[in-house]
Amino acid sequence: MPAPAPGYVVLLPVKPPARGKSRLVGIESHERADLARSFALDTAESCLAAAGVGAVLVITDDSYFAADVARLGAAVIPDGVSGDLNETLVQGAREARRRWPDLRPAALCGDLPALRSADLDAALTAARGFEAAYVEDAAGGGTTLYTAPHDRFRPAFGPGSAAAHRDGGAHPLDGDLHSLRHDVDTLEDLEAVRRLGLGPRTALASVRVASLG
């Protein structure tokens, strides 16, 4: 299959790592922050390497993380509506349209530390056949990716997001897409995705956590 043209801008919302991933229980706060930062950086790097991605726009209020992800090649803006993920994504989509009017927005979870660019490309290529589309997470009921043209971009992340996106007219994308379906909220999730192959920063951060070593 030929590589897709770079027709998407990935919107990557990232909570400040010091406040993110509260469900990673049983480890020290600095270890949790290190893992959260690593998840997001590995996710961003995989997005930047995808053939179908023309730009990555990270939305975060953490200046240290912003500098780290900018060094990878992502654009960064502050989160003007912190606390409302869907409004954050709408804000990001508006800025993306201003910067890259020809790129279609694709909202992605920032906690996909095993993400492979090939899986992301496969999903984005499949999404071209639909007005709006989403990828359901491995646990079922959640969403890891949502994309629609700017005039139909209505993300509905949160509890029951897969059904909310479907009810809003988005098409569920089929296929294995294993690395794209496995977001990480708990240490058990992290263990589950280890077999898929963790990104380099997450692999390093995870061995520093005593309970995972």
Automatic annotation (TrEMBL):
Gene3D superfamilies: Spore Coat Polysaccharide Biosynthesis Protein SpsA, Chain A
InterPro entries with a match to the protein in the record: CofC (IPR002835), Nucleotide-diphossugar_trans (IPR029044)
Record Pfam families: CofC (PF01983)
Name of the protein this chain belongs to: 2-phospho-L-lactate guanylyltransferase
Enzyme class, first EC level, given as a word: transferase
Keywords of the record: GTP-binding, Nucleotide-binding, Nucleotidyltransferase, Transferase
Keyword Transferase in record: yes
Enzyme Commission identifier(s): 2.7.7.68
A GO MF label: GTP binding
Record carries keyword NADP: no
